[in-house]
Amino acid sequence: MSAISKPGHLLFRLHEKRIASDEVIDFLGQMLAYHPHRHLVVVMDQAPPHVSKKTMGYIEQQRRLHVFHLPKYSPDWNPDEKVWNHLKHQELKAHQAKTKEELKILAMQKLQGMSQNPRLLRGLFFRCCVANLFG
């Protein structure tokens, strides 16, 4: 899961298991805490934990949180997909990790580097969202 929280910032978490509503709610809470005085607009796909009754109930209770869900089966519109694709095919291309733990550490390092590269993030967002409007 990742979220582009403002131009040039990437908040992310890596999970070793499939996420559920509790992880989504915790991540949304982390974003609200990261921006304590701002309204947040979050775009999510319609994965079951994103649209569960528990998650939707949490979202409805957050005055500063505005969530919009992408249409089903629309990965081209999802900035997260662009982040993971870049990580997999560019940052981790030909990696030398030998264990799952080494790969997790390397992925974390690469994501932290990506999070400090506003130009890259703007490019990923542009390719995801703006280019698709005119493509």
What key phrases describe this protein's structure?
single chain, 6 helices, alpha+beta
Question: Can you tell me about this structure?
Answer:
The protein is α+β, with helices and mostly antiparallel strands and 135 residues long. The chain is built from six helices and four strands. α1 runs parallel beside α3 (53-61). Mean pLDDT is 85; it is low at 1-5.
Helices and strands, with pairings:
Blueprint: E1 2-6, E2 9-12, H1 21-34, E3 40-44, H2 48-51, H3 53-61, E4 65-69, H4 79-91, H5 100-115, H6 118-134
Parallel strand pairs: 3-4
Antiparallel strand pairs: 1-2
Helix pairs in contact: 1-3, 4-6
In this structure, how is the largest beta sheet organized?
2 strands, antiparallel
**Sequence stretches where pLDDT stays below 50 over 5 or more residues:** 1-5
Q: Tally the helices: what do you get?
A: 6
Number of strands: 4
- Major beta sheet, strand line-up: 1-2
State the helicity in percent bands.
40-55%
Helix/sheet category: alpha+beta
Distance between the termini: 26 Å
The global form is globular
Q: Provide the succession of SSEs.
A: EEHEHHEHHH
The overall pLDDT, averaged over residues, is 85
- Please give the radius of gyration in angstroms: 15 Å
Approximately how much beta-strand content do the residues carry? 5-15%
